[in-house]
Amino acid sequence: MTQLLNNAHDFSITNLNVHNVAGNATYNNRSSGKSALERAYPSLVSSLPSDRAAPIGLEENISAGAAHNSDERCDAPKCHPYTRVAVQDEIISWITTGDMDEEPKKILWLTGPAGTGKTAIAGSVAESCSEKGILAASFFFSSFSGSEDRRLKRCFVSTLAYQLRRHPSLSALDQHILSTIDHDPTVFRTRLIDQLEELILKPLRHLHNQIDASTTPKVIIIDGIDECEATNPFNRPMEEEEAQSIKEKDQLEILSLLLRAATDPCFPFRIVAVSRPERILSTFFSNATESTLELFLDDKYDPDSDIELFLQSKFAAIRRRYCLPPSWPTLEQIRSIVSNASGQFIYAATVVRFVEDPSNLPQKQLDRVLNLEKSGDLSKPFRALDTLYTLILNASPDPLSTVQWIWVVHEERVEDSKRVPALFWRYYMDSTVGEAERLLGCIPSLVSLPPPEDRTSLIKFYHKSLLDFIDNQWRCGDLWMNFVVRSDPDRRQYVRILKDQGLTVPDQDREDFLFHFLSRKPSMRPESRLELENCEAEDPHIEETLRSCDARWWVDMCLDNTSFDQVHRGLNATIFLHQVHARVMPHITLSAVVQAVEEGGS
């Protein structure tokens, strides 16, 4: 097949349309019968989703990593022992006895600024409720999760339905939920509000008179609603304004269906919804006060005492490890850190990780943190945290390159939510051996970089506030960079790999490396005309370099890679044609591959 695409960058496409509506692909051209592509790869088109496809099970449409106790959340933050006791007690009291309130509310909105420990509180409350048998379901969104289904709304309702049916006291729901799916396997492609109706509310109505309130779980916990990202059903680049608009609509859709559930008489659960106080979310809750209660994490819950207790415990462990005297650090030093934290647990946690960095003595590291007080006005909400982040990033031998690679790793999106291991990034980043260690291994208080021998673990960022910091020009100052600059090392390395037909990678790792490289979505590449022009201005030889790439070799690689199914092979072939000949065919799609095959083989 691929020999027909040799030197294909100058062909044109006429009288051929490809439509993709709700996952159903239709190909129209002047020839009759099966296309050459279908004849060569019969499963390519037939394996596309269809309303006539075999029923798909509930398990295949959930986000297993979103549950409070998933392996993906094994290192998620939890409240340090004896901290955040008051706020946890208040939430659990509302869950168990809220019906006795003068004006009972079914939804509690836990909110507060970044870094105040919302996710840790939600995780700890979920753990406590699970131990008591009163947790019905949970969903923890995460905008920097390796799993796409934790970043998007797609699996939200189905995941809750799956967890509800698995609770021992709700096992009767199982028959009704599975019957709904068997009757209409396409239910997972409907709107979230329709999924809620079919998979949760209708089954609950059927069993309303059979549910024993004394054994029924009490609460559903949803964390990180503000981290739910924009759905992109057509897998195309979006301008920032469009993406933000869709993101807000998706988040409001989630809140609307939670409110819909809470106001249904047959819905027996309370809901704890957790998010930052973003404008669009605050507006929603202010308009739904009849059904919602707000719990804002402020000084009322005495975060300073909790942060001091946390620091005392962590510094005691460091003292034992380094055989330091009991007088280190002094109470005055600890309270100075508490004061700088301004209620932000993430500040205290980052200080601890910085102090225990084995590259230097903890006494010297602590002194560096304490000296930040003298660097300027710390009265702004994030000033202390920003100053700390700046200190740590500037400790890199090349701070700007470190920030660039943080962006590259964070912004990576791959098909089918494949999680890219650190091993791939070590090969990909290493223009010289050891580059990953040099640029990311030097900031262990911000980024977790697995050791070189670890072949499966991911690069992890400890907190989203780091990404907020480097994305805000006014907060990060000289470390800020626009899209073109921050994607420059990625673009150069990507093009170099295209030109060189891969990297020199050990045989045992080559297949995995190429698999992840082939999986990378084209949205990572500059797509808008302005971005392309800016990229060319940065590297005027980029077009010439792209044209020198062997498109045929890469299409062969895409189509021969057994890790992909046939659909993904075809799509990835077009992606690489797009990359190699971006200037000539800026809108190439699967139809181009179909057309190329038919022109040469029909």
From TrEMBL:
Tell me which UniProt keywords the record has, alphabetically: Repeat
Q: Which domain of life is it from?
A: Eukaryota
Q: Which SUPFAM superfamilies match?
A: P-loop containing nucleoside triphosphate hydrolases
Q: Where is the Nephrocystin 3-like N-terminal domain?
A: 92-238
**Protein name, entry field:** Nephrocystin 3-like N-terminal domain-containing protein
Instruction: Give the matching InterPro entries.
Output: NPHP3-like_N, P-loop_NTPase
